[in-house]
Fold this protein.
Amino acid sequence: MTRYAEFLAAHQGPRPLFLPNAWDHASAAALAAEGFTAIGTTSLGVAAAHGLPDGAAATRSLTVDLARTIAPLPAMISVDLEGGFSDDPTEVATLAATLADLGIVGINLEDGRPDGTLRDPDLHASLIAAIKTRCPPLFVNARTDTFWLNTQAPLVNALARAERYIAVGADGVFIPGATDPDDIRTLATRIDAPLNVLFTPAGLSLDALAALGVARVSTGSLLYRTAISAAVRTACEVRQGNPVPGGQISYGEIQHLAADTLFTEADFISAPTSPGIAAPADSRANGAGSNEVGPNEVGPNGAGPS
């Protein structure tokens, strides 16, 4: 089975494919070490980590660099391309081909624009068609922001755009901002492709989303924002002289995760990788291991789109 076929099949399970979103090598490697077989990237995390705005087509080279770094990990990687960093189908298809050549199995391509409007659906469809013509074995997750941007008649518009994007080859449809169970059920029933929705801490569980027909659930920027919140919270606790909970991944484990990039994909077949962070989790929770301390990750309310 090819990696594309494997990724496609992962959207057909009785439970949604849960896709956590990483923003750098360490976060992706740690997720892979915990057993996540599919990992996405978050455009907000990539942009914010470099002092750039999300969704403004400012991180093309950074996105490719990240993809090159995490592609060798033992997980199927899907990369968030914002809007493709161009309106030119040839340019976007060339970028997609670059990622596919690195070993990336899927991409997200959104029709929302930085000014709060939506890209013309025919133009967005032309980008999808160009990508699928150039890279047939690349999973294109066509994102439409009708709900996220609170457009008029978001359900009707999402269905129309999804149909247009699927007609030119989109493998899946991502609709962040859709949270109402009736809307999600309608989208899952009427869209003839795997439906991806965004997880929100106050929203539905994976099992509840599965019951509605959802095929894939992403965390978007949630993990990145959680990490930033935890880091700031820890600094404040130290400044105030308060105790800081333990249980963090150790310095040595982070070093080991970084060393794993020395293995090629073929090496993973015959050579052992790091034991990951799952094995020593109990000891960390009990305060053993590294002397370094930090907060347990607690997510903020709400979720970012990408």
About this structure: The longest strand covers residues 76-80. The two ends are 29 Å apart (CA to CA).
